[in-house]
Structure formats: C-alpha cells, structure tokens
C-alpha cells in the first residue's frame, strides 16, 4: 500500500519512459525469479518437525545463491555478445533475483512459524525501502534507474529484517541432510518450476507484448496501471494468501475436509466482495481519479485501469485461493490449468497483434475477456 500512496509523488518525478523501463525490468526479473531455490520454499510449511523445515530453508537459499551467480554470468556473456543491451537487465536483475529468492524463503518460514506480524512488518519494510530510495533518487534527478534501484533495495531491506527476527539457523547441516529433503520434496522442482514459470510468463505476457509492439510511452502508461492494480493485489491478495495457506494446510493435514471447504467458500466470498467494490470504482471513475491523483498527463493510465478492472477482480479472488493446490499436494492439477492458461494467453495476444492488428485499447479489451474467462 505504501508504494501506492507514494505513486502521486513518483509520477511527478519520473516520466512515462522511466515507468516503462521499470515495468520491463520488473517483468523480466519476476520471470527469472520464479526458478530461485527450486521452489523448495513452498514445502517449508509442510514438515511436522522444525528440523526438517530448517533443512528445506537452507537448501532453498543455497540453490538461490548458485542460480543468481550463474544468471549474472550468463547475462554478462549475453551483454558482451550484444544480445542483451539493456544495462538494467544485466546489472540489476541478478541482485533482485538473489534478494527475492532469499526473501520468499524467509516469508514461507515465517508462515510456518505463524509469525504473521513479522511477515506483515517485513512487507512494510520492503515498501518503505522502495519508496524512500525511489523518491530520493528522483529528487536528485537520478531517474533513469531510480525506480529499479528502489525495488532492489526494498527487497534486500525486508529480507534483512526477516532474518534478524526469525533467526533460522541452517549452518552446520550436512549435505546428506540437504540431499534427503531434496529427494523427499522433489515434486516441487519437478512439477512446480515449469508450470510456475509458464504462469509467470503468462502474467507478464501483456507487458512483453507492449514492450515489443507498442510505444514506450504506452508501456509507461500501462506500467502505472499495473503498479496501481498490483497494490491491492499485494496488500489484500498476498497477505490473505499467507493466512489462507497456513490455515487450509492445517485443516487438510487434520483431514477436516468439510471445515476446509467451508473456509474456502467464505474466503472466496470475502475476496469477491472486496474486489467488486474496487472494480466498480475503477470502471466508472478510473480516468477521472488517475487525472486528479497522478496528474492530468496520466489519465490514459486511468483508461487502461477502467478496462482491466474486472479482470483484476477475478484475479484477486483466484490468486490467493490457488495455494490450496499446494496445501492439498495436488500440484499436477494446478499444472494442467497453468499450461492451458499459458497457451491461451499467448495465442490470444498473438491473434490480437499479428492477426487483427489491434490498437492498444482494443488489445486490452481482448485481454480482459480472456482473463475473466480463464480465471473464472
């Protein structure tokens, strides 16, 4: 929520091109970060013994460090070969992937420990680090990478806070112990990495298409829309997902299936109510609100938000509740939907860009229809 509240300041410090550069960076960094830790961090909440959870914690972090180092080397090589030309991708993406991989492992450990206040506070630290860094750099006219640097700093600061509060100690664990939990929970990298990568690629598909086929200015406008719509998704959706994941896992482990299904339905109703209110407001007053809050030059972002408001609503309901597949150890079921979603999204956008040659407004309406159908 803090980045959302600071956005009116950021839109007056940074241009549409700056927002477009940040949007492109964040999309690529998010895609690459999916692989961090082999996604073993998702299994941290499952073991009954804390010792086994600590082993998973250490395994995930070691894999993240190795992956980030390899990624940095690959990007440097691609830069030398002039295949990758954007400095922000080469110099910032590996650090963000490293810090994010460790941070998400700590987040899942805090969920296991039921340290929800620490969890929530860490996200405040993350937002504060981003906002303060971005505003400070903007004031000193270092705007070209200001938003990107702020994101990296915020993730690092949040990770440091979590580690100091939780103090999970994975030092001294034998490699054989890491190997045993790696084998025991092999389904997570085996059946989770590829579908999650496809899912993240799909979530960032519109940004990738806009980066390639539309103007940098329109990418910047969409970048603000994405940032604003992500705020409630992050505050409500992510926070609720953490609580939901812990509770639904506990109920399923106790084989209280009737109670767990009732909890699922109540959660869906609550999220639908909250998302519906936000969607209606954006649909009718999006351009007007964006013009007042962010400046008249950003009313086009409000038009984008009005179009995408109802797809935001269904995502707010579905995204937090999708963790039920992991709680019920039904990863393969989730994988089928994610693969279908990937295929249908890129097919839809491909038809819109290549076949119908739609302008950006028409493309957003087509994307809205697709998202609403698939998430429903």
Salient structural properties:
376 residues; mainly alpha; 0% strand; globular
How many runs of DSSP E, i.e. beta strands?
0
- The percent of residues in helical segments reads over 70%
Q: Would you list the SSEs in sequence order as H and E? A: HHHHHHHHHHHHHHH
| Overall geometric form | globular
Biggest sheet features: none
Number of helices: 15
Structure description:
With 376 residues, the chain is an all-alpha fold. It has 15 helices and no strands. α3 runs antiparallel to α4 (87-112), α11 packs antiparallel against α12 and α14 runs antiparallel to α15. The mean pLDDT is 85.
Sequence-ordered SSE layout with sheet pairings:
Layout lengths: L1 H12 L2 H18 L16 H31 L6 H26 L3 H24 L6 H21 L8 H10 L2 H17 L1 H9 L2 H38 L3 H38 L4 H23 L2 H4 L3 H25 L4 H16 L1
Summarize the structure.
By secondary structure, the protein is an all-alpha fold. It contains 15 helices and no strands. The model has no long low-confidence stretch (mean pLDDT 85).
